[in-house]
Amino acid sequence: MPTPYFQFKQFTVWHDQCAMKVGTDGVLLGAWAPADSACSNILDVGCGSGLVALMLAQRCPQALVTAVDIDEGAYRQSELNFRQSPWSSRLRAVHSPVRHFRPDQSGYDLIVSNPPFFTHSLKTPQPARTTARHNDTLPLTELLVFAAGALKKTGSIVLILPVTDKEKCVKLAESVELFCSRSLTVIPKPGAAPKRVLLVLGRENSPEETGELTIETEKRGVYSPQFSALVRDFYLKL
Q1: In 2-98, which ranges are continuous DSSP H helix?
Q2: Does residue 237 form part of some domain?
Q3: CA distance 142 to 140
Q4: Which domain holds residue 51?
Q5: Residue 236, domain member (yes or no)
Q6: Full-prediction pTM beyond 0.70?
Q7: Residue 13 in 3-state DSSP?
Q8: Which of 6, 112, 182, 214 could be bridged to 187 by S-S, CB 3.0 to 4.6 A?
Q9: Would you state the pLDDT for residue 129?
């Protein structure tokens, strides 16, 4: 039987009530997003268990972190995880679709999302898992339009997507005057094809800084030095 929670160094994520469990995509997003002490207002769109929001609350000691999800189970799960964390006073869960969510009028320094990205693939018989995986309820265009209106002038939105969706995302972002300033291509192991890409999109149209990260070494289950360094503040055994 799968473990109903995932223990990190400073917090625990229970994920038994939500469709999408703790996974590498969320950990990458929470660890790599450009968040620092200057961030005061952060939004996690499609928060699931609240994993990414918790990671950002740990990384940004002064930030208020709001996490929104359309699924009631995910909302309740994230709310529980936030209450039990060391940063409960700075974390807020909201049950709402993005199109009905009212952003903070002061704007966000950072918006993060590990969005549903399946478009035409077979849907599961579980409604919550379908919502979490398929973009019917959160199309990429809608997410980018929302971000363009909710970010501060110097703010950015950070996404993790299938690597094949990068070009489409960049073009959609440019149509709402958001530009890719940084990207990281994620490779599961040496010799494997890239699977994911992380993107930083903001209002400044500057040359894109690119990079690559390989998660494992050639030995199965052994993390690469680069990935280990990225997640060392979170994973128990690093």
Answers
A1: 24-32, 51-59, 72-83
A2: no
A3: 5
A4: 5-231
A5: no
A6: yes
A7: strand
A8: 214
A9: 43
